[in-house]
Amino acid sequence: MAPNTLLVVLLVGAVAAPRAAAELPRLEHPPTKADGSLTVLAVGDWGRRGQFNQSLVAEQMGKIGEKMDVDFVVSVGDNFYKNGLTGVDDKAFEESFTNIYTSESLQKPCQQINPNVNKSDSLTLAVLGNHDYRGDALAQLSPVLRKLDNRWICMKSFVVNAEVAEFFFVDTTPFVLKYWNEPKDSTYDWRGVAPRETYIANLLKDLDAALKRSKATWKIVVGHHAIRSVSEHGDTQELVQQLLPVLKANRVDLYINGHDHCLEHISSRDSSLQYLTSGGGSKAWRGIFTPNTDRLEFFYDGQGFMSLQLTNTEARLAFYDVAGTVLHSWGLTKGAYY
Ligand SMILES: *[C@@H]1O[C@H](CO)[C@@H](O)[C@H](O)[C@H]1NC(C)=O
Ligand SMILES: *[C@@H]1O[C@H](CO)[C@@H](O)[C@H](O)[C@H]1NC(C)=O
Questions:
Q1: Whose CA is nearest to atom 8 of ligand 2?
Q2: When comparing pLDDT for 114 and 299, which is higher?
Q3: What are the beta bridge partners of residue 275?
């Protein structure tokens, strides 16, 4: 397929050395459907060797994925519990990813993004969560994992251009001050991150530049931590203060995150931004609900995942539980005036 040659992915670099301001790594995902539409699933907070209903959620993702003909899966982080991976040889990678997300629909070829494979890379595009930073964070970014399972692509911050939509993956863990100041019993792998202020300043600058350049109808930002959440962890103040202004200034449509182990949809009251939490990949049922000032459209304190269908004029999202039942669906149209 001709476009493949253009797309040898920028998977190296930006790994060990602290990031300087630069262009974010970009992946190209040309439309695979004749009408140019795109379908993705999003799941977070999942890697528990199938336990806590991870396997049930995975099975339903496979079924819904088949029905909807998904293009790729987004992982919003906390990929491997409890402390990320110990290294590239950690069996948790197979036990919590390869052996769990086994459905055919999650195995479709997607050679545009990874031309070095023959089959089975219906990609999971992943960011890191705070638990991933408690292990060998660089291991999850390693090409060695991609050799073990070629569906796996994890980077700290990057852009996926799918024409109708552009996805901006943001590494949110370094924003959260308490991981630096009060790590308690945890050790965070800040290789390539410290010093924090420089990393964040450069990341926000790069994100802003990438958003300004984007011509996609839909601009979607993905991070691990919530900006807005009514569940256990609540709003992430550092993101409200530092990331949110960049999203609003660039008219981002959706912000998708995990971290809280639940499903949520909150509408911003002073912009068109929708906050979506899809952190129900395994352990859930925290039993905490604290409303905030934005408009709560939907909250489910249990396991599940989210789908997103995008055309040039319409975005449609849905949340599912462990039985594959649609709990909430919502749509938005965009006119030519946009
Ligand atoms: C798994 O899902 C079932 C079916 O909805 C539910 O009854 C059970 O409590 C869940 N288990 C856990 C550990 O959350
Ligand atoms: C793809 O399959 C062909 C034919 O089986 C094989 O020669 C080639 O090495 C494979 N490429 C990769 C990257 O696995």
A1: 118
A2: 299
A3: 255, 266
Give kind and range of the element (H or E) at residue 146: helix 143-148
Whether omega before 195 lies within 30 degrees of 0, making that bond cis, reads: yes
Identify the three-state secondary structure at position 265.
Answer: strand
Q: Which ligand is nearest to the CA of 323?
A: 1
Sheet holding 295-300, edge to edge: 26-28, 158-161, 165-169, 218-222, 254-257, 274-278, 263-267, 295-300
**Predicted pLDDT of residue 46:** 97
Q: Where are the domains of the chain?
A: 27-331
**Ligand 2 closest atom vs CA 116:** 13
Cα separation, 248 vs 229, whole angstroms: 17
Average pLDDT over the chain reads 89
Ligand nearest to the CA of 54: 1
The pLDDT value recorded for residue 122 is 54
Residue recorded with tokens 């300004």: 212
Q: Of all protein residues, whose CA lies closest to atom 4 belonging to ligand 2?
A: 118
Residues that are catalytic: 233
If you measure from the C-alpha of residue 118 to the centroid of ligand 2, how many angstroms do you get, rounded to a whole number? Answer: 6
For domain 27-331, give the fold: Purple Acid Phosphatase; chain A, domain 2 (3.60.21)
Burial class of 100 by CB neighbour count within 10 A (0 to 12, 13 to 18, 19+): buried
Q: What is the DSSP secondary-structure string of 198-216?
A: HHHHHHHHHHHHHHHH---
Cis preceding linkage at 212, omega within 30: no
Tell me which of 122 and 57 has the higher pLDDT. Answer: 57
CB 261 within 8 A of CB 224: no
Contact 112, 30 (CB under 8 A): yes
List, in sequence order, every beta strand (DSSP E) within 146-294.
152-154, 158-161, 165-169, 218-222, 254-257, 263-267, 274-278
Q: How many CB atoms lie within 10 A of CB 46?
A: 33
Beta strand ranges found along the chain (DSSP E): 26-28, 38-43, 72-75, 124-126, 152-154, 158-161, 165-169, 218-222, 254-257, 263-267, 274-278, 295-300, 305-310, 314-320, 326-333
Is the Cβ atom of 152 under 6 angstroms away from ligand 1? no
Q: pLDDT class for 202, splitting at 50, 70, 90?
A: very high
